[in-house]
UniProtKB/TrEMBL annotation:
<comment type="similarity">
    <text>Belongs to the urocanase family.</text>
</comment>
<dbReference type="Pfam" id="PF01175">
    <property type="entry name" value="Urocanase"/>
</dbReference>
<feature type="binding site">
    <location>
        <position position="590"/>
    </location>
    <ligand>
        <name>NAD(+)</name>
    </ligand>
</feature>
<feature type="domain" description="Urocanase N-terminal">
    <location>
        <begin position="87"/>
        <end position="213"/>
    </location>
</feature>
<protein>
    <recommendedName>
        <fullName>Urocanate hydratase</fullName>
        <ecNumber>4.2.1.49</ecNumber>
    </recommendedName>
</protein>
<keyword id="KW-0520">NAD</keyword>
<feature type="binding site">
    <location>
        <position position="206"/>
    </location>
    <ligand>
        <name>NAD(+)</name>
    </ligand>
</feature>
<keyword id="KW-0369">Histidine metabolism</keyword>
<dbReference type="Pfam" id="PF17391">
    <property type="entry name" value="Urocanase_N"/>
</dbReference>
<dbReference type="InterPro" id="IPR038364">
    <property type="entry name" value="Urocanase_central_sf"/>
</dbReference>
<feature type="binding site">
    <location>
        <begin position="128"/>
        <end position="129"/>
    </location>
    <ligand>
        <name>NAD(+)</name>
    </ligand>
</feature>
<dbReference type="GO" id="GO:0019557">
    <property type="term" value="P:L-histidine catabolic process to glutamate and formate"/>
</dbReference>
<feature type="binding site">
    <location>
        <position position="402"/>
    </location>
    <ligand>
        <name>NAD(+)</name>
    </ligand>
</feature>
<dbReference type="InterPro" id="IPR035401">
    <property type="entry name" value="Urocanase_C"/>
</dbReference>
<comment type="pathway">
    <text>Amino-acid degradation; L-histidine degradation into L-glutamate; N-formimidoyl-L-glutamate from L-histidine: step 2/3.</text>
</comment>
<dbReference type="InterPro" id="IPR035085">
    <property type="entry name" value="Urocanase_Rossmann-like"/>
</dbReference>
<comment type="function">
    <text>Catalyzes the conversion of urocanate to 4-imidazolone-5-propionate.</text>
</comment>
Amino acid sequence: MTLAEFQADIRAGIPDRLPAAKPYDRQINHAPKRKDILTPAEKELALRNALRYFPARHHAVLAREFAAELRKYGRIYMYRLRPDYEMHARPIDEYPAKCRQAAAIMLMIQNNLDKAVAQHPHELITYGGNGAVFQNWAQYRLTMKYLSEMTDRQTLVMYSGHPLGLFPSHPDAPRVVVTNGMVIPNYSKPDDWERMNALGVSQYGQMTAGSYMYIGPQGIVHGTTITVMNAARKRFTGDRTSARGMLFVSSGLGGMSGAQPKAGNISGVVSVVAEINPKAARKRFEQGWVDELHESLDELIPRIRQAVKSKEVVSLAYVGNVVDLWERLADEGIDVDLGSDQTSLHNPWAGGYYPVGLSYEASNKMMAEEPARFRECVQESLRRQVDAINRLTARGMYFFDYGNAFLLEASRAGAAVMGEGGRFRYPSYVQDIMGPMFFDYGFGPFRWVCTSGRAEDLDTTDRLAAEVLEEMLRTAPDDIRGQLEDNLHWIREAGRNRLVVGSQARILYADCEGRTRIAQAFNRAIADGRISAPVVLGRDHHDVSGTDSPYRETSNIYDGSCFTADMAVQNVIGDAFRGATWVSIHNGGGVGWGEVVNGGFGMVIDGSEESGRRIREMLFWDVNNGIARRSWARNDGAVEAIRREMARTPGLQVTLPNSADDNVIRNALNETES
């Protein structure tokens, strides 16, 4: 397809003449069939909802086709509408657009649906088994058409993948406002999502899928690298001061979890990651993200012993069920240093977790046709998995929950994961590492995309970011020196580690000062031509202030407010009027529908003074909103960080907590009771 044909296809939106039906491509990794949850009346409603995108003359053909999709897949994806062009991020100037901000958003959407990036690209699912950019291909086509027509005095409103329309606004307003899954709280159970998604009225946007900010597994490589490095430091013994030769065991190579072996290599450990889906494991191997594939435990176990003994830095994938791996490691008496899990247990009944004893194909069939039995199999599998993990931790393994709802779902299954006082016996990685060491100080996953598509521009941004971190290190206080040093090491090694999948993107963890200084360095480089095109700034929602999630991002909030969502909502509102190009807020993401509210942003910078102003105003709020909240929860690191920021920033006044003496409180309660 020529560039002119591509641009014409974008502008056309939903074509006036129906394109030919497309064959089902079995070479692509597809979403599993969803369970049959709609009543007969609701199935009629689902068809009515789907057909409203098309004129009545097409309804007879499409009604039969969509009914067949609903019956066969449990959803209406409108496969016929999938474009003929290759889906990938193009250089920004190839998009038909009236403003560059809109072109940048089109680039980001296509990157999220690139088959090299997305988990189930033909079902418009980017990662996590159900993290969708759109519900169907009509929504994609109509959204791209609107973006091609948008001016800088319009805002596109997105309701769970549905483009509500372009509305008059102004140049300082966001160009796109996105909501995903924002349902009434009493209708936020897993089956509610299944029903509303099948009806075509809501979707699960995960964190960065439905907000167009996913950059492939690189985003989580960095977070996992930081986590593994600091978990290894916790595991260090008197005769060991390096992670080299440590054994790290986990599961998942599909979407974001595919980052684990690469993170293991960067951290210097022996990593073993199980993956039940052969296509997913093969994809990561072909991309160079895992070094070896093993289908036999009899072959893998000796290989693990050899790698640990010789202190290799190597990543091994087991193509099979992780429970079999855990049980074999425990039975063989192999000492595992670090353990975790990255199956998509926020979505346990619809492809996020595959129970031991069933093949991948048999599981997919059972989850759709016998959902109650499948649920029992998953819970039995979780109990066995935890039993094996407990045996290994008794021998010294440091196990941590990676924020995928593993401990939550294991507890619901009756697995032995509870400790004293009704708490989990194992920490969340946020409780032990990310929260007190990073989020409380404002460090989080700052990321950017070079819209030129040129590797040379990405190299320039890497160099500029490293220069900023080096300069900050010269005067940094002791409590953040370690974070800066780890991230400086990361950015220096980023190019060598071949982290780019899809768009020319990068990530590092930085605080407010670091993000702002790096972004301003990029803006100056665009202005003077060292970077050839605009840069999109963003972050994962898994950050300082973007997400309220009691089992992950806010799991180290102990004042009782971890179940509130004021921070995430305030984050998005504040970002919207301080200069974000687009903002998003979602129910669900990472740990499950109904378990989290998370917000994100994207910002296009173009070298202008206006971009410089937006960087200063928006990034400041985006970070310090969260530090202030964490400070009020009496988190020591956050109190110190916000004190420093108030001293540095005129006009900032944050309410600080006063600490009460434990004895005063206990005496008062005892006196009252007596």
